[in-house]
Amino acid sequence: MAKTRCVKCGVVPVTFELVPIMPTAPRLKLFGPSYAGSKPVAVQCAACGTTIGVSDFLNIKELMDKLEEIAGRLDRIERRLPK
Ligand SMILES: [Zn+2]
Q1: Residue 12 Cα to ligand 1 middle (Å)
Q2: Do the domain assignments include residue 10?
């Protein structure tokens, strides 16, 4: 399997770090609804600081857990509805 390489400095193996960023629009929403405490972060090469992406601070696992919780609630509501 190929190893991930930084496009600027070429360091291998590359390590990435998450760095909080301050968007010009203070309440910028990157991917749909933001949850309290969600802040955008840059994903950057830990060696040279080149940004390779931007993401919400909350990770996908937390969002999937929230969706699962909502689906469970909807399921319970649906079971109570008359057929
Ligand atoms: Zn780099």
Answers
A1: 9
A2: no
AA identity, residue 41: V
Structure confidence by residue, pLDDT tens digits, 7-23 = 999 988 889 998 888 77
CA of 19 to the centre of ligand 1 (A): 14
Q: What span, in angstroms and rounded, lies between the C-alpha atoms of 57 and 35?
A: 10
Q: Is residue 22 part of a domain?
A: yes
What range defines the domain where residue 59 resides? Answer: 16-80
Can you say whether the dihedral through the CA atoms of 40, 42, 46, 48 is positive or negative? negative
CA 57 – ligand 1 centroid, Å: 21
